[in-house]
Amino acid sequence: MTTLFTIPIEPIDAHPGGTITLTTPSPKIYLLTISSPPDNRLTTPFCAALLKALTTLQHTQPPGVLVTTSSLPKFFSNGLDLSHVTSNAPHFWTSALYPLFRKLLSYPMPTVALVNGHAFAAGLMLAMFHDYRVMNPARGFACLNEVDFGALLKAPMSSVFREKLPPATYRSLVLEGRRFPAEQAREAGIVDAVGGLQEALALVEERKLLGKAAGGVWGLLKVEMYRETWGFLSDEGFEVEEAREKGNMAREEEDGATEKKALAKL
Q1: Could you give the number of structural domains in the chain?
Q2: Residue 256 forms part of a structural domain
Q3: From CA 78, how far away is CA 36, in angstroms rounded?
Q4: Cβ contacts of residue 257 below 8 Å, gap of 6+?
Q5: Distances (CA, A) of 252 to 155, 207, 260, 262
Q6: Where is the region Disordered (predicted)?
Q7: What is the CATH number of the domain that holds 35?
């Protein structure tokens, strides 16, 4: 297996940083391995390094298939560091996370997330922005647990699941915070196969993905397929959805106050 490059993830706050390394397990199949202990949290430096790795691969190597995984045996990614996000908003959304999601959604070659461990919240979103997913059968859950810790899903974070998954699966993820082990995740349509790197390579072969980037339209086809999510990820879409979210919260507070006054009169 040849190493093509390694990109550092800069340390920030309590996160020690890490690396993203690109290797080639097979000709024109690129394995991007993320290592940011202890659990591959999506911080600003994490997003910047992954975006740089994707861009470098795109412009320095022949088109092929990208497989993204983690070097950490327990975690694919444990999601966002909420304190980091809060202290860096709105810059984090517009300059770190959304550009990364845009790059993945429009990436000009097939992408496969090899989910080797837990993929929680934004960690599962990171996998969902890939074209295909393969999940470790022995370890890890796929889960959106925002409902359990009281966090809202911003528009593209929700719509990517709505556009890619069956309605019943979408409901279980968002409203129930259900944890899906690998086999249940496959049955629910969250992942396409169960296994490790060999199964990911088998999926590439079975789906005949290796030559799909040669036509030059793979990324454009995806933008059209997932046009709602693509629109939400734009700067204009972000501003519109932020205003809508604030309006919804204000109306909910107003309705709650009105209901309390009505109850007090009973």
Answers
A1: 1
A2: no
A3: 11
A4: none
A5: 18, 47, 12, 15
A6: 245-266
A7: 3.90.226.10
